Amino acid sequence: MKYMLPLITYSLAIASVQAQVLFYGGDYDGRIGSPSQWAPNLQALTFDDFGLSSASTLQSIWGNFGLLQTVDDFNPTQAYCEIRSGVSAGNGGSLLFSGMLPVQIEPTGVSQWGLPEYQITANVNLTLPAGIYWLGMAPVGDSIWDEAYVSSTSGGSAGPAGDPNPPATGFPLADGMSYFYDPVGYNYVPMADTTAGAGTWDFSYGVGGVEAVPEPSSLPLLAVIIGLFLVYRHLKILPNTSLEPTPVTLVSFRCGFRVGGSRGRRGSVLGR
To answer: Which of 124, 206, 223, 261 has its CA 20 to 30 A from that of 173?
Structure first.
């Protein structure tokens, strides 16, 4: 019994669902920053793809952006975000999520062609089945000088010490399936067909969350584990019910048999 509680605790820990990095395309590779911003002078989104190997609940999305801060110290507090499926050249596919979200920003210690790079993160709550999706993020500014450029990546992990980004994670990495959109001229144009020029263009986006809860086949096991834990708790509060043998006191007495007795006559004793 003394090993039951650690076993139950370990089993429950395995059964619990932990938040994790579901996808990260990789760190800035020194090539370009693509406009991805929501400001009065330009509303643009750079999209790149990410994959989910199983149904998952997205809890955070982020991107690494070079921010123009030389004029009014651009430090965004919001970002416009979209997640789509089925994107192709000239086709935005299906819009699965969009919204203006609060963001947290953290410097990465990287310079993107002279612009300080920041990791910009937003919290979401979106459950998606396994598949391929496209993420676009655009930090929001209130001035024509508030420019943001999402960093290109080749799927590597080259950040300096203290970089808040994880290693490149998930799939697909460096597959070139990125697209550029703005409402006045670029309708989901492959990046290789923009002024970026020929090449395999991918961008530094990440997705965090949890994979699907235990599948139905594992739920009976979880029920058994919980049942064992309840039995253990019950036994802990019962009085001592030791199975050691109870001492028995033996009482001796004398007995004998007589034969030949009759009314008024005791007969002979055979044994005592």
So the answer is: 124
